[in-house]
Write the structure tokens for this entry.
Amino acid sequence: MSFTLKMSNVIVGRSELESRDAAGRIARGAFRPGLGYDLVQPVFALFEQASGDPSGLAKYRKAREALRLHLADSSGATIAVRELHIRRAGDGESSDSGLVLEVEPAEPLLPVSPR
């Protein structure tokens, strides 16, 4: 299932969120940037710069909330999220763009169906 991240009506990017933990608490997947990614990239760079510093993370979260991002599934239904990050892919994570979308949904997502 494809998920679309938007800011207003501008597509920031898409992901299949193909990796999910057993409890459905964290979902992540390769992120394919859209036209709006350049508008939000500086905010997500704050997350990386914070390096766990509480005041840096607070600044990042405040800036991210101001973006009013919306995550929707392939049917257009909005997915409520507790946390959302776009970050560089780490070891063992595959992404053509080098980016990963990581979300903590308010409700567990349905499991990824086998292809």
Summary: Helices lie at 37-50, 54-67. The radius of gyration is 14 Å. DSSP finds two helices and eight strands in the chain. The first strand starts at residue 3 and ends at 7.
